[in-house]
Amino acid sequence: MPPETQVEVTLDETVYGGAAMGRLADGRALFVPYALAGERVLVEVVQEKARHVWARLLQVVQPSSQRIVPRCPHFGECGGCHYQLLPYETQVSLKVKLLAEQLQRIGGFRELPSIEVFPSPFAWHYRNSLQFHLTAEGKLGFQRAQSHETLPIQQCFLPLSPLVDLWKQIELDPVAGIERVELRCDSDENLLMVLESERIETPEVLVEELPISVVHLSPVGSLVMAGSEHLWMEIKRQRLRLSAGAFFQVNIAVAEQVVDYLLERLHLSTDDTLLDVYCGGGLYSLFLAPKVGRLIGIESSPYACRDFEFNLDAFEHVELYEASAEQVLPQLNLQPQTILLDPPRSGLSRTVREALARLAPPQIAYISCDPATFARDAHHLAQNGYHLEHLAFFDMFPQTYHIEGIGIFWR
Q: In the chain, what are the domains?
């Protein structure tokens, strides 16, 4: 029998994805966002599957002793944050626990190395970029939780201060065909607004009184509407060029922690060949290139490739393939000593996993932003003779459920 529309239930555990899980009377798992393990809650079922259901939190009947009052008035309605109901130290501990659970449950790892933990130096106001959708009135907003509806936003405590001051001043024509708006702030506090659309026609935007650059991204490429197409990010006193269409880590302080970790944990020699797969604009290559004899970057984004060539121009022993990892890796005829992987949330494709098994480098470093796909891929590496030697958690995204991890595998 289907469950009642509303049900009161005790939640047993917090799971990856920003929800807590309990059980219905019929045995099915019940997932409740914005709730915590141990809480007794009243919920409304919003989606049913054969083995589980999703529900909306209506009331916390018996709260967890760990629950605190969220800082943001939009929490629970906006889909951007998930853990503002926990103290920051507890968020970090929870994410470390969930990373280990994913590797054990999905990856099949009975034993794990001690997880090195790197909290964010800033739990608030750490993001150098924000992505918005437009409301029907042309206001910038975020996606409503568990919905595709755009929620108008009055406050957000995640972006850097210059972005907080900027986005409240922007109003766009809702019929201009703009599908997404991204605001970025670089290390010099220069500001950039990126307008993304499937239309080739340039949207009309009035920004004369705003001290920002504006770039339109469409299927034909990028068009500078005001200012510059590039920002400059400083990592460990090194400046990297960032194009409007390229990705960059949102938390500079934690990105520096990741760079330090790679430099400290990887065994590198000036006789080595290193492959930086999904290399982006060269964030990690810039610091690893001086440590090896040959570095090869692989990146499919043309915007990021142009940044990579600019940022790594000083190194004569650095090469770049502008193509997907699936296209390049199976064709390589060389023996790399180290492969660095930084894939999207979907992780590694079967083609990439098979190519890694053929190349068989002694050392693989895997930077992951999704512990489920990381665990799946780590399982395949283990099946091909690799041992998970080092494991670390970096809190790149405080207040959210997202988990950034690094595994270093040896064979």
A: 6-67 (2.40.50.140), 92-122+251-410 (3.40.50.150), 129-232 (2.40.50.1070)
